User: Fold this.
Amino acid sequence: MSPAVPPGPAASVAPIIVADVGGTFARVALAELRAGQPPRLSGLRRYQCAGYPSLAAILADFIGAAGQPLDTAVVAIAGLLEGDHLVNTNLPWPVSVQATKADAGLRALDLINDFEAVAHAIPHVQAETLVALNGHPPVASAWPALVLGPGTGLGAALRFQGGEQPVLASEAGHAALTAGNALELEILGRMQQRWAHVDQERILSGSGLMNLYPCLCDLRGSVPRWDSTEALIAAAHAGEDAVAVETLEVFSAWLGSLAGDLAITFGARSVYLVGGIPPRIAHFLHAGGFQARFLAKGVMGRVLAQVPVWRVEHGELGMLGAAVWHAARRERAVA
Assistant:
Protein backbone atom coordinates (compact mmCIF):
# COMPACT_ATOMS: atom_id res chain seq x y z
CA MET A 1 0.00 0.00 0.00
CA SER A 2 1.29 3.47 -0.80
CA PRO A 3 2.32 5.46 2.29
CA ALA A 4 -0.31 7.48 4.09
CA VAL A 5 -0.48 11.10 2.98
CA PRO A 6 -0.39 13.54 5.91
CA PRO A 7 -3.03 16.26 6.13
CA GLY A 8 -2.07 19.40 4.31
CA PRO A 9 -3.21 22.15 2.02
CA ALA A 10 -3.01 20.06 -1.17
CA ALA A 11 -6.43 19.95 -2.80
CA SER A 12 -8.09 16.56 -3.08
CA VAL A 13 -11.02 15.35 -5.15
CA ALA A 14 -13.67 12.73 -4.58
CA PRO A 15 -12.13 9.26 -4.45
CA ILE A 16 -12.24 7.09 -7.54
CA ILE A 17 -12.33 3.33 -7.96
CA VAL A 18 -9.10 1.76 -9.15
CA ALA A 19 -8.79 -1.91 -10.07
CA ASP A 20 -6.13 -4.35 -11.19
CA VAL A 21 -7.76 -7.23 -13.08
CA GLY A 22 -5.83 -10.30 -14.16
CA GLY A 23 -6.88 -13.66 -15.45
CA THR A 24 -7.35 -15.10 -11.96
CA PHE A 25 -7.90 -12.30 -9.45
CA ALA A 26 -9.17 -8.71 -9.41
CA ARG A 27 -8.05 -6.22 -6.77
CA VAL A 28 -10.23 -3.16 -6.28
CA ALA A 29 -9.65 -0.15 -4.03
CA LEU A 30 -10.45 3.50 -3.52
CA ALA A 31 -7.84 6.05 -4.57
CA GLU A 32 -7.62 9.49 -3.02
CA LEU A 33 -5.86 11.96 -5.31
CA ARG A 34 -4.04 15.03 -4.01
CA ALA A 35 -2.14 17.41 -6.25
CA GLY A 36 1.61 16.89 -6.05
CA GLN A 37 1.38 13.79 -3.86
CA PRO A 38 1.23 10.05 -4.56
CA PRO A 39 -2.28 8.58 -4.59
CA ARG A 40 -3.44 7.01 -1.36
CA LEU A 41 -5.22 3.65 -1.59
CA SER A 42 -7.77 2.33 0.89
CA GLY A 43 -10.58 -0.19 1.19
CA LEU A 44 -8.84 -2.91 -0.82
CA ARG A 45 -11.01 -5.90 -1.77
CA ARG A 46 -9.88 -9.02 -3.66
CA TYR A 47 -12.15 -10.95 -6.01
CA GLN A 48 -11.75 -14.26 -7.81
CA CYS A 49 -12.64 -13.42 -11.40
CA ALA A 50 -14.24 -16.78 -12.20
CA GLY A 51 -16.61 -16.32 -9.25
CA TYR A 52 -18.38 -13.37 -10.94
CA PRO A 53 -20.26 -13.23 -14.25
CA SER A 54 -18.57 -10.06 -15.48
CA LEU A 55 -16.23 -7.21 -14.66
CA ALA A 56 -19.31 -5.05 -14.09
CA ALA A 57 -20.51 -7.43 -11.37
CA ILE A 58 -17.20 -7.07 -9.52
CA LEU A 59 -17.28 -3.27 -9.73
CA ALA A 60 -20.93 -3.17 -8.66
CA ASP A 61 -20.17 -5.37 -5.66
CA PHE A 62 -17.34 -3.07 -4.63
CA ILE A 63 -19.53 0.03 -5.01
CA GLY A 64 -22.23 -1.59 -2.92
CA ALA A 65 -19.78 -2.42 -0.14
CA ALA A 66 -18.09 0.99 -0.17
CA GLY A 67 -21.01 2.78 1.44
CA GLN A 68 -20.47 6.05 -0.45
CA PRO A 69 -21.31 7.48 -3.89
CA LEU A 70 -18.77 6.39 -6.51
CA ASP A 71 -19.10 7.08 -10.22
CA THR A 72 -15.59 6.95 -11.71
CA ALA A 73 -13.34 3.95 -12.20
CA VAL A 74 -9.99 3.24 -13.84
CA VAL A 75 -9.31 -0.43 -14.45
CA ALA A 76 -5.86 -1.82 -15.18
CA ILE A 77 -6.63 -5.02 -17.05
CA ALA A 78 -4.72 -7.66 -18.94
CA GLY A 79 -5.26 -7.29 -22.67
CA LEU A 80 -5.43 -4.83 -25.54
CA LEU A 81 -8.36 -2.47 -26.03
CA GLU A 82 -9.73 -2.32 -29.59
CA GLY A 83 -12.49 0.25 -29.64
CA ASP A 84 -15.09 -0.91 -27.13
CA HIS A 85 -13.80 -4.49 -26.94
CA LEU A 86 -10.92 -5.92 -24.90
CA VAL A 87 -8.73 -8.50 -26.63
CA ASN A 88 -7.60 -11.00 -23.98
CA THR A 89 -6.96 -14.73 -23.79
CA ASN A 90 -6.90 -15.20 -20.00
CA LEU A 91 -10.07 -13.57 -18.62
CA PRO A 92 -13.12 -15.75 -17.88
CA TRP A 93 -15.51 -13.32 -19.61
CA PRO A 94 -15.58 -10.78 -22.48
CA VAL A 95 -15.29 -7.08 -21.63
CA SER A 96 -17.13 -4.19 -23.29
CA VAL A 97 -16.32 -0.72 -21.95
CA GLN A 98 -19.79 0.71 -22.57
CA ALA A 99 -21.66 -2.31 -21.23
CA THR A 100 -19.44 -2.47 -18.15
CA LYS A 101 -19.95 1.22 -17.43
CA ALA A 102 -23.73 0.93 -17.78
CA ASP A 103 -24.08 -2.30 -15.82
CA ALA A 104 -21.91 -1.06 -12.95
CA GLY A 105 -23.75 2.29 -12.78
CA LEU A 106 -20.66 4.38 -13.52
CA ARG A 107 -20.48 7.85 -15.06
CA ALA A 108 -16.91 7.35 -16.29
CA LEU A 109 -14.85 4.22 -16.91
CA ASP A 110 -11.38 3.87 -18.40
CA LEU A 111 -9.58 0.63 -19.18
CA ILE A 112 -5.80 0.63 -19.53
CA ASN A 113 -3.36 -2.21 -20.03
CA ASP A 114 -2.36 -3.71 -16.69
CA PHE A 115 1.37 -3.39 -17.35
CA GLU A 116 0.95 0.12 -18.64
CA ALA A 117 -0.52 0.87 -15.21
CA VAL A 118 2.31 -0.91 -13.38
CA ALA A 119 4.84 1.09 -15.36
CA HIS A 120 3.12 4.34 -14.35
CA ALA A 121 3.54 3.29 -10.70
CA ILE A 122 7.30 2.61 -10.88
CA PRO A 123 8.41 6.13 -9.76
CA HIS A 124 6.36 5.62 -6.58
CA VAL A 125 7.80 2.23 -5.59
CA GLN A 126 9.35 2.34 -2.14
CA ALA A 127 12.97 1.26 -1.74
CA GLU A 128 12.11 -1.34 0.90
CA THR A 129 10.03 -3.28 -1.66
CA LEU A 130 12.99 -3.75 -4.04
CA VAL A 131 15.23 -6.85 -3.94
CA ALA A 132 18.24 -6.90 -6.27
CA LEU A 133 18.56 -9.74 -8.78
CA ASN A 134 21.50 -8.37 -10.73
CA GLY A 135 24.51 -6.63 -9.20
CA HIS A 136 24.39 -4.14 -6.32
CA PRO A 137 22.54 -1.24 -7.89
CA PRO A 138 21.59 2.05 -6.26
CA VAL A 139 17.96 2.48 -5.33
CA ALA A 140 17.43 5.47 -7.64
CA SER A 141 15.66 4.54 -10.86
CA ALA A 142 17.50 4.57 -14.17
CA TRP A 143 15.52 5.30 -17.33
CA PRO A 144 14.10 3.86 -19.46
CA ALA A 145 12.91 1.11 -17.13
CA LEU A 146 11.65 -2.25 -18.35
CA VAL A 147 8.71 -3.64 -16.36
CA LEU A 148 8.26 -7.38 -16.84
CA GLY A 149 5.98 -9.77 -15.04
CA PRO A 150 4.69 -13.33 -15.25
CA GLY A 151 1.32 -13.94 -13.65
CA THR A 152 -1.64 -15.70 -15.21
CA GLY A 153 -0.14 -14.34 -18.44
CA LEU A 154 3.04 -12.37 -19.18
CA GLY A 155 3.15 -8.58 -19.36
CA ALA A 156 5.80 -6.04 -20.26
CA ALA A 157 6.02 -2.26 -20.63
CA LEU A 158 8.67 0.45 -20.82
CA ARG A 159 8.72 3.45 -18.46
CA PHE A 160 10.49 6.66 -19.45
CA GLN A 161 11.50 9.38 -17.02
CA GLY A 162 8.74 11.79 -17.98
CA GLY A 163 6.93 13.49 -20.82
CA GLU A 164 3.30 13.45 -21.94
CA GLN A 165 3.54 9.75 -22.87
CA PRO A 166 5.89 8.27 -20.24
CA VAL A 167 4.88 4.64 -20.82
CA LEU A 168 5.18 2.38 -23.86
CA ALA A 169 2.76 -0.51 -23.46
CA SER A 170 3.42 -3.81 -25.23
CA GLU A 171 2.07 -7.28 -25.83
CA ALA A 172 5.50 -8.92 -25.53
CA GLY A 173 3.90 -11.97 -23.92
CA HIS A 174 2.42 -12.86 -27.30
CA ALA A 175 5.71 -12.58 -29.18
CA ALA A 176 7.29 -15.86 -30.29
CA LEU A 177 9.11 -17.87 -27.62
CA THR A 178 12.80 -18.34 -28.35
CA ALA A 179 15.17 -21.00 -27.01
CA GLY A 180 18.69 -20.46 -25.73
CA ASN A 181 20.03 -23.99 -25.16
CA ALA A 182 19.48 -27.59 -26.23
CA LEU A 183 16.91 -28.36 -23.54
CA GLU A 184 14.84 -25.28 -24.36
CA LEU A 185 15.03 -26.17 -28.06
CA GLU A 186 13.62 -29.61 -27.29
CA ILE A 187 10.85 -28.15 -25.15
CA LEU A 188 10.03 -25.57 -27.83
CA GLY A 189 9.87 -28.30 -30.46
CA ARG A 190 7.32 -30.21 -28.40
CA MET A 191 5.30 -27.04 -27.83
CA GLN A 192 5.25 -26.40 -31.60
CA GLN A 193 3.61 -29.79 -32.08
CA ARG A 194 0.71 -28.55 -29.96
CA TRP A 195 0.35 -24.94 -31.14
CA ALA A 196 0.96 -23.23 -34.47
CA HIS A 197 2.24 -20.14 -32.62
CA VAL A 198 4.18 -20.69 -29.41
CA ASP A 199 4.37 -17.37 -27.61
CA GLN A 200 6.22 -16.38 -24.44
CA GLU A 201 3.14 -17.00 -22.28
CA ARG A 202 3.10 -20.68 -23.23
CA ILE A 203 6.02 -21.14 -20.82
CA LEU A 204 6.71 -17.89 -18.96
CA SER A 205 3.48 -17.54 -16.97
CA GLY A 206 1.54 -19.35 -14.27
CA SER A 207 -0.34 -21.37 -16.87
CA GLY A 208 2.93 -21.83 -18.74
CA LEU A 209 4.43 -23.61 -15.75
CA MET A 210 1.75 -26.25 -16.24
CA ASN A 211 2.86 -26.65 -19.86
CA LEU A 212 6.54 -26.83 -18.92
CA TYR A 213 6.20 -29.34 -16.06
CA PRO A 214 4.52 -32.23 -17.95
CA CYS A 215 6.87 -31.65 -20.87
CA LEU A 216 9.88 -32.08 -18.59
CA CYS A 217 8.22 -35.11 -16.98
CA ASP A 218 7.94 -36.69 -20.42
CA LEU A 219 11.56 -35.91 -21.21
CA ARG A 220 12.72 -37.37 -17.87
CA GLY A 221 10.51 -40.47 -18.10
CA SER A 222 8.38 -39.63 -15.07
CA VAL A 223 4.64 -39.32 -14.49
CA PRO A 224 3.30 -35.82 -13.65
CA ARG A 225 2.19 -35.64 -10.04
CA TRP A 226 0.84 -32.09 -9.82
CA ASP A 227 -2.11 -30.58 -11.66
CA SER A 228 -1.99 -26.95 -10.46
CA THR A 229 0.57 -24.17 -10.34
CA GLU A 230 0.17 -23.92 -6.56
CA ALA A 231 0.87 -27.63 -6.01
CA LEU A 232 3.81 -27.59 -8.39
CA ILE A 233 5.48 -24.62 -6.70
CA ALA A 234 4.89 -26.11 -3.24
CA ALA A 235 6.44 -29.42 -4.31
CA ALA A 236 9.46 -27.65 -5.76
CA HIS A 237 10.04 -25.67 -2.56
CA ALA A 238 9.70 -28.86 -0.51
CA GLY A 239 12.19 -30.64 -2.77
CA GLU A 240 9.91 -33.67 -2.99
CA ASP A 241 9.84 -33.85 -6.79
CA ALA A 242 13.06 -33.46 -8.78
CA VAL A 243 11.19 -32.54 -11.97
CA ALA A 244 9.19 -29.87 -10.12
CA VAL A 245 12.47 -28.38 -8.93
CA GLU A 246 13.88 -28.53 -12.46
CA THR A 247 10.72 -26.87 -13.79
CA LEU A 248 11.23 -23.78 -11.64
CA GLU A 249 14.95 -23.73 -12.42
CA VAL A 250 14.28 -23.86 -16.17
CA PHE A 251 11.50 -21.29 -15.84
CA SER A 252 13.70 -18.86 -13.90
CA ALA A 253 16.57 -19.14 -16.35
CA TRP A 254 14.29 -18.77 -19.37
CA LEU A 255 12.70 -15.69 -17.80
CA GLY A 256 16.17 -14.23 -17.22
CA SER A 257 16.99 -14.76 -20.88
CA LEU A 258 13.84 -12.94 -21.98
CA ALA A 259 14.54 -10.07 -19.56
CA GLY A 260 17.99 -9.68 -21.08
CA ASP A 261 16.61 -9.78 -24.63
CA LEU A 262 14.01 -7.11 -23.89
CA ALA A 263 16.52 -4.92 -22.03
CA ILE A 264 18.79 -5.00 -25.09
CA THR A 265 15.90 -4.45 -27.51
CA PHE A 266 14.53 -1.41 -25.68
CA GLY A 267 17.82 -0.02 -24.37
CA ALA A 268 16.52 -0.35 -20.81
CA ARG A 269 18.75 0.94 -18.03
CA SER A 270 16.84 -0.82 -15.24
CA VAL A 271 14.49 -3.79 -15.00
CA TYR A 272 11.61 -4.32 -12.56
CA LEU A 273 10.33 -7.88 -12.21
CA VAL A 274 6.72 -7.85 -11.02
CA GLY A 275 3.63 -10.04 -11.35
CA GLY A 276 2.07 -12.82 -9.31
CA ILE A 277 4.66 -15.55 -9.94
CA PRO A 278 8.02 -13.97 -8.89
CA PRO A 279 7.18 -13.64 -5.16
CA ARG A 280 6.18 -17.31 -5.09
CA ILE A 281 9.41 -18.55 -6.71
CA ALA A 282 11.84 -16.03 -5.20
CA HIS A 283 14.25 -18.74 -4.02
CA PHE A 284 14.69 -20.03 -7.57
CA LEU A 285 14.98 -16.56 -9.09
CA HIS A 286 17.80 -15.71 -6.68
CA ALA A 287 19.59 -19.03 -7.10
CA GLY A 288 21.62 -17.72 -10.04
CA GLY A 289 20.01 -19.09 -13.18
CA PHE A 290 18.00 -15.94 -13.84
CA GLN A 291 21.03 -13.67 -13.58
CA ALA A 292 23.31 -15.98 -15.58
CA ARG A 293 20.92 -16.04 -18.52
CA PHE A 294 20.17 -12.32 -18.22
CA LEU A 295 23.88 -11.68 -18.76
CA ALA A 296 24.47 -14.40 -21.39
CA LYS A 297 24.17 -12.04 -24.36
CA GLY A 298 27.67 -12.12 -25.85
CA VAL A 299 29.39 -8.76 -25.94
CA MET A 300 26.23 -7.14 -24.55
CA GLY A 301 26.71 -9.05 -21.30
CA ARG A 302 29.12 -6.34 -20.13
CA VAL A 303 26.46 -3.72 -20.76
CA LEU A 304 23.75 -5.70 -18.99
CA ALA A 305 26.02 -6.17 -15.98
CA GLN A 306 25.45 -2.46 -15.33
CA VAL A 307 21.66 -2.73 -15.59
CA PRO A 308 20.00 -3.08 -12.18
CA VAL A 309 17.34 -5.77 -11.99
CA TRP A 310 14.86 -5.56 -9.15
CA ARG A 311 12.29 -8.05 -7.92
CA VAL A 312 9.46 -5.89 -6.60
CA GLU A 313 7.66 -7.03 -3.45
CA HIS A 314 4.62 -4.80 -3.91
CA GLY A 315 1.22 -6.28 -4.66
CA GLU A 316 -0.69 -3.11 -5.45
CA LEU A 317 1.24 -1.54 -8.31
CA GLY A 318 -1.57 -1.99 -10.84
CA MET A 319 -4.06 -0.05 -8.74
CA LEU A 320 -1.50 2.59 -7.80
CA GLY A 321 -0.54 2.99 -11.45
CA ALA A 322 -4.17 3.32 -12.52
CA ALA A 323 -4.56 6.19 -10.05
CA VAL A 324 -1.32 7.83 -11.24
CA TRP A 325 -2.50 7.54 -14.87
CA HIS A 326 -5.85 9.11 -14.01
CA ALA A 327 -4.26 11.96 -12.03
CA ALA A 328 -1.83 12.77 -14.86
CA ARG A 329 -4.62 12.84 -17.43
CA ARG A 330 -6.72 15.11 -15.22
CA GLU A 331 -3.80 17.50 -14.73
CA ARG A 332 -3.25 17.71 -18.49
CA ALA A 333 -6.96 18.42 -19.01
CA VAL A 334 -6.96 21.43 -16.66
CA ALA A 335 -3.54 22.78 -17.68
User: Anything to note?
Assistant: The chain has a mean pLDDT of 92.
